[in-house]
UniProtKB/TrEMBL annotation:
Species of provenance: Halteria grandinella
Database matches in InterPro entries: Malate_synth_C_sf, Malate_synth_sf, Malate_synthA, Malate_synthase_TIM, MS_C, MS_N_TIM-barrel_dom
GO biological process: glyoxylate cycle; tricarboxylic acid cycle
Domain Malate synthase TIM barrel stretches: 162-394
Claim: Transferase is one of the keywords in the record: yes
Domain of life from the UniProt record: Eukaryota
Pfam family, one: MS_TIM-barrel
Protein name per its UniProtKB record: malate synthase
Length: 548
């Protein structure tokens, strides 16, 4: 007799009250089918990628700019795609929390993207709750009353196209175990979302399962996503290639293979997105072995930096050449309800950035707050006066034929940075430490996106700070404070800064603050830079409630 999923699958925290709705047996059956088909292949893929990243970091794999392959002898385009995805001028993103889902769907954006990857702290209630909120919202019966706000929240109509960003390959869902081991978070998100929503999306909303694909480094990973989605379509008896994807370009390596990746995904690809924050993080991580990191600290880095301009233009050109949308990235300036001055400032910053993107030729952009939807819609409407996009535009003047043009701060031939007199300002080190500490504190308490100093903080923005702190500390970066002579940023000095910044955070929850401090200290003093903060952070997130 076959084992039922309830016999094979164990839950670390026992049965949550949302299990019945979110994880009925038929959904777990679908998950197990995917798990059995892909889990081992996924583990191998991740191991191979780790080896490849190590080799790249040792300078054993040469980097190249994205270049059309010989397939271009027969010019090709991505498949035409649904009419309802032609207009994507404003896309609002939010973690799939109850209030955000309602507000995002009611914000008037062309697309709502629910982000399970960078914006959600993956506690078990958050993950189950996130799927539950989407199930209810897509059925147009997500409603509740907020007693503090004295406000009724309800999704009545859906005029936005719905995407989710599942968790990236390599992430585990540690609350659900098969044969005693954590399952893949990607497979979990794909199976649960498609199982519950495919029929309603297609039959009631005229949409389909649409996914944003995050943090892919290699062509092999892109192919793997394609295989998983094809298999899922077969299981649900959905037409082949009807599950559409937008690929977030956010890694140095993916950028260099972007033509090949787009070709591999061409039957289901409907856009490329500029994952600028993760891309900066990837640049910081991948070039860390150069003598010092000359890339400016995250808080001083502007979108005008030439390597970011080159990044944007590559995405725009490749997308448009292949007939798909180019979607601009996220400005992290965030309005504050009830703070008109800050809001005015944030909106003006976002408008200035999005106007430049629209003028360059982008077809739309992400926004991170409902108050940004109308201003950004206007930026694009002023430029795109005919039709819904501007896919016919290319940027001839921004062709990059060499890696020096993509990464102008590195002298690839000599294997060094162009200058080595970069001295980090102590204020930047303090800023980076403060952002990490506050983020880890909130994340450990279950919040994965928040506004701090008028900026949105999510995993991707904070990862830049974390990686830069590691580099500065481990390469004994010279640090200056005012007019004093520079000192080497030794680990002891780093720890002292982390300690002082922790002391400035006022909270009654001393235990979580201590956890956040220790997490940052451990992350910055590891001999090898961890690829993601999750390597140390996820094992300590809400696992103490185990009741197997
Ligand atoms: C680089 C990247 O990875 S970007 C992609 C992932 N990032 C995200 O998804 C982050 C999206 N943004 C957010 O989560 C939020 O804007 C935050 C956390 C940064 C700030 O939110 P808040 O502190 O609640 O802002 P504020 O107090 O101004 O919110 C006002 C109202 O707007 C709502 N709101 C704010 N941002 C969003 C959003 N993105 N989607 C839906 N509703 C939102 C709030 O829920 C609040 O609703 P209410 O008035 O009904 O209570
Ligand atoms: O995921 C988006 C980014 O900017 O990073």
């Amino acid at each position: 007799m076959e084992e039922s999923p309830t016999q094979v699958i164990k839950f670390l925290q026992g049965k949550h009250f949302l299990h019945k709705t979110v994880l009925p047996d038929r959904c777990l059956d679908l998950f197990l089918t995917l798990h059995n088909r892909f889990h081992t292949q996924l583990l191998t893929l991740i191991q191979e990628k780790e080896v490849m990243l190590r080799q790249f970091d040792q300078g054993l794999i040469p980097l190249k700019p994205p270049s059309p392959s010989d397939k271009d002898a027969h010019p090709w385009q991505c498949e035409p795609y649904p009419i309802n995805l032609q207009r994507r001028q404003v896309e609002i993103t939010a973690p799939p929390l109850r209030k955000q889902v309602v507000n995002a769907l009611n914000a008037g954006a062309d697309v709502f993207m629910a982000d399970f990857d960078d914006a959600l702290s993956p506690t078990w209630p958050n993950v189950l709750g996130g799927h539950y909120n989407l199930i209810k919202a897509i059925r147009r019966n997500l409603r509740f009353y907020d007693t503090d706000k004295r406000k009724e929240y309800a999704v009545m109509e859906i005029n936005s196209q719905i995407f989710i960003q599942p968790r990236s390959l390599g992430r585990e869902e540690g609350h659900m175990l098969v044969e005693g081991l954590p399952v893949s978070a990607t497979l979990f998100d794909l199976a649960v979302y498609a199982f519950h929503n495919y029929v309603n999306l297609t039959e009631k909303l005229g949409q389909n399962c649409y996914f944003y694909i995050p943090k892919v480094d290699t062509l092999e990973e892109a192919n793997f996503w394609n295989e998983m989605l094809s298999f899922l379509e077969q299981q649900l008896k959905a037409p082949a290639n009807s599950f559409k994807i937008t690929f977030v370009v956010e890694s140095v390596l993916a950028l260099s293979q972007l033509e090949e990746i787009v070709f591999a995904l061409k039957e289901r690809l409907v856009g490329l997105n500029t994952g600028r924050w993760n891309y900066i993080g990837s640049v910081v991580k991948r070039f860390r072995n150069f003598p010092s990191s000359q890339i400016e600290a995250r808080h001083s880095l502007s979108n005008e930096a030439s390597f970011l301009q080159a990044f944007q233009s590559q995405i725009l050109n490749i997308a448009h050449k292949r007939g798909i949308h180019a979607i601009g990235g996220t400005s992290s300036f965030v309005p504050r309800e009830n703070q008109p001055k800050l809001t005015e400032y944030a909106i003006s910053q976002v408008i200035s950035e999005k106007t430049k993107e629209a003028e360059l030729g982008f077809d739309g952009a992400w926004v991170v707050h409902p108050l940004l939807v109308q201003p950004v819609a206007q930026c694009f409407a002023e430029i795109i006066t005919h039709g819904q996009h501007q896919k016919d535009r290319l940027l001839d003047e921004f062709e990059c034929d060499t890696v020096d043009q993509l990464f102008p701060f590195i002298n690839f031939r000599a294997g060094e940075l162009l200058t080595d007199d970069f001295i980090i300002d102590k204020e930047e080190v303090k800023n980076a430490a403060r952002v990490c500490l506050i983020y880890y504190f909130h994340w450990l308490k279950g919040t994965g996106a928040f506004s701090f100093d008028n900026l949105m903080e999510v995993a991707s923005t904070v990862e830049i700070c974390r990686a830069q702190l590691w580099i500065w500390g481990n390469q004994r970066q010279r640090m200056k404070e005012g007019e004093q002579p520079p000192v080497n940023l030794e680990q002891e000095v780093m720890n002292e800064i982390i300690g002082k910044e922790t002391g400035k955070i006022s909270t009654h929850d001393k235990l979580t603050l201590l956890q956040a401090k220790n997490l940052l200290k451990n992350l910055t003093r590891m001999k090898e830079l961890p690829e993601s903060f999750l390597e140390l952070a996820y094992p300590i997130l809400d696992k103490h409630q185990a009741k197997l």
